[in-house]
Every structure is written in C-alpha cells, then in structure tokens.
Design brief:
The protein is 44% helix and 18% strand. It has six helices and five strands. The chain has a five-stranded parallel sheet, with helices on both faces.
Length: 159
C-alpha cells in the first residue's frame, strides 16, 4: 500500500493546500496530512485548531488522515511507515527552499523521497501568509480558503 505524508504548518489551510492534497489522494492509497507545530513561524492558530480547520475539508477523502507532529519530518515519516513526502510548488520562488529541504531530508534518510505537486494555477499566488494579511485588515478571503477557515479568521482578527 502506498502511503505519503503531506506536511505543513497550514496556518491556515488554503484552497491551494487542499488542491495539492486532492492530487495526492488520487495518487496514493493513504495520505497523512501532518500539521507541524513549527513555533518558529509564530502561527496564528494552535496545531489543534489547524487540525480542526482541516478535518471537515478532507472528509470526502476516505484515504486521508490528519495528525500533528513535532521534530524532524523524516523521523515522523519513518514512524508512520511511509517513504514519500508531498510538497506543493506554487511558483519558482518556492523551488529553491523546497529543493534544499528535499536534499536535506534525503541526506537524513535516503529512503525518503520528496514529490513536488503543482496546484491548479488559480492557487499559484495564494499563501497562508497573504491570506492572514488580507484577513487582518478585514478583506474578503473566501476565494482563498474554505468557509470554516474564513469564519475563524474573521473571529481571530475581530479581537
């Protein structure tokens, strides 16, 4: 059975993330969405909140599970008995960072492969950071995130 890990901060999850996830769900028997704690990114939502925002949006994929992780990704991949990491590439600007990360992961565990998946071009400019900036100033982010996420962003920035 093929099993891949789709890691990320997902703060918040966007339609672009979900597009990449849908592509992975069609390619693999099992997909684990791995929500990183990643305190270095100073997330708006806790890992538990991010998982709760993702879960209703992946319910249509019976082969997808959502969990959290902390620490080295390759160690998490091995613990999950997977050997593929899925990463989305929106634009050329993502490539250098993702390429270096893939090479480091390969160095740490040569059995782990990274596959890059391009989202639909409609989502190529969308990032969680931009979505949060727009939401912070009261802009409409409903085109970029699922409705449950847009509602949580409105709540988060109301206070």
């Amino acid at each position: 059975m093929s099993h891949c890990i789709y890691p990320g901060t997902f703060d918040p999850v966007t339609h672009g993330h979900l597009d990449v996830l849908g592509r992975a769900a069609r390619l693999f028997d099992r997909v684990t969405v791995a929500v990183s704690h990643n305190p270095g990114k100073d997330p708006l939502f806790s890992a538990e909140q991010r998982m709760a925002l993702i879960k209703p949006n992946v319910a249509l994929y019976p082969n997808v599970v959502v969990t959290e992780f902390d620490g080295l990704l390759v160690e998490f991949v091995a613990a999950q008995k997977a050997n593929i990491i899925i990463r989305g590439l929106r634009a050329l600007s993502d490539f250098e960072f993702e390429f270096n990360m893939a090479l480091m992961n390969r160095h740490l565990d040569p059995e782990v492969e990274t596959l890059f998946v391009m989202p639909n071009e409609l989502f190529s400019y969308t990032s969680s950071t931009l979505v949060k900036q727009v939401a912070r100033y009261g802009g409409d982010v409903s085109k970029f995130v699922p409705e449950n996420v847009a509602a949580e962003l409105r709540r988060a920035f109301k206070s």
